[in-house]
Amino acid sequence: MVLVNHTSRAKEPRFLAFDLFCGAGGTTRGFIDARGYVVAGVDNDPMCRKTYVMNNKNEFPPFEPPAYLQYDLLPGLDGSVEGQRRAMERIEVLLNSVRLRYPSLPLVAAVTPLCQPFTRLGRLGRTDERALQHELDSTLLIQSVNFIRKFLPDVIFSENVPGIDNPAYGGIWSEFITRLQELGYVVGDARVCASRFGVPQYRRRAIIVAIRRSVILPELKTAARLDLPEEDPEADLITVEKAIGHLPPLEAGEAHPTIANHRTRKLSKINLQRLASVLPGEQNTVLAETAYGDLSLRCHVRLRERTNGRAGFTDVYTRMDPHKPSPTITTKCHSVSNGRFGHFDMHQVRGISLREAAILQSFPENYVFYPESAITPVAKMIGNAVPPKLARFFITWALERVDLAYIREMRAV
């Protein structure tokens, strides 16, 4: 089947959008790069505001950044949804204002709640308070249906960890799909690796793209579901060395004087020795025999003793392989004790910098995370983000299946 579509005029954006659970702006950046106009991002974290607003100026008139709407979208103890109501009111005002200039563009909604409630590591060692918060956060995807029902966007994009469809989490993913279908959407979902979309990182994700049946191309109106692509055929596999090898060298604990966020975490003497003893791509089992003696983690030694030699987490305190995409960039990407986050260059005994982590997430090199002097909160923003290239690809793919001529005819002033 050949899909036929119409390109939007260069003098206006291709679509309007709002971004729920926007964080530091990965999805919004991808949408703007896809020639969208994002009116607002909604998130409850005040730490992300400056990063989001300063980096995401829209590229069409009136050339303003999206509004950062700080609201809690969870219902209160009494069942009230005051945060949702206020966010909806603000989005509606912003949309109406921009629609005066662009009355006939499709509307896109991004729905990307935090992934921690649906990860195995996110559930380890949790306090009762953190467990309760994760339980509440796991419902945010379903809460977003209220926004879908209110605004009836033409396209919906959602991204999360693959484990979100695990029945242990209450069937949140499948329930979300069912509710979208009940609202008149043709839905597709897939498990993809970001490395196959031009992101220099092995990052498995669950993706949903939904298009209103009323605006989908005629040849797709009877489709039961959308078949989402598993790769971008035009994207190259980008290695760690190709992505970050050009950046100036640093030492552990050093910050570059002019490159924003090119900053690394300090390392203790023993961790410097561990990282110096591991070649790129090696497992940490080599730490049992080094020039400094046995540098194995005591917990790993005890595990091997209890399990007749079975190794634990073999990627901690190790270096990335320069000839492959990086491992998944997490909120702990600044710490070599939390994964294979050591720099591949043997002359640089350190973990990757925040700038390097952001590049591996496919953020532009001029995307500045604030506060610039901080490490832990910035690493959290980077690790929680949707890779902009992934968002850009899927929204572009979705719009190619929307009948833009029909939308223009129906909504033109």
Brief write-up:
By secondary structure, the chain is α/β, with parallel strands linked by helices. It is built from 14 helices and seven strands. α1 packs across α13.
Name the CATH superfamily classification of the largest domain.
Answer: Vaccinia Virus protein VP39
Order of helices and strands: EHEHEHEHHHEHEEHHHHHHH
Count the domains. 2
* Strand portion: 5-15%
Structural class of the secondary elements? alpha/beta
Strand element count = 7
What is the helix fraction of residues, given as a range? 25-40%
CATH architecture of the largest domain: 3-Layer(aba) Sandwich
What name does CATH use for the topology of the largest domain? Rossmann fold
| Overall 3D form | elongated
Major sheet description: 7 strands, mixed
Strand order of the largest sheet: 3-2-1-4-5-7-6
Poorly predicted runs: 4-8, 126-134
Please state the CA-atom Rg, rounded to the nearest Å: 22 Å
The CATH class designation of the largest domain is Alpha Beta
Our count of helices gives 14
Distance between the termini: 33 Å
Mean pLDDT across all amino acids: 90
Helices, strands, pairings?
Elements: E1 15-20, H1 26-33, E2 36-43, H2 49-55, E3 67-70, H3 82-99, E4 107-111, H4 128-137, H5 140-143, H6 145-151, E5 155-160, H7 172-182, E6 185-193, E7 204-212, H8 240-244, H9 269-276, H10 298-306, H11 354-360, H12 376-384, H13 388-399, H14 404-411
Parallel strand pairs: 1-2, 1-4, 2-3, 4-5
Antiparallel strand pairs: 5-7, 6-7
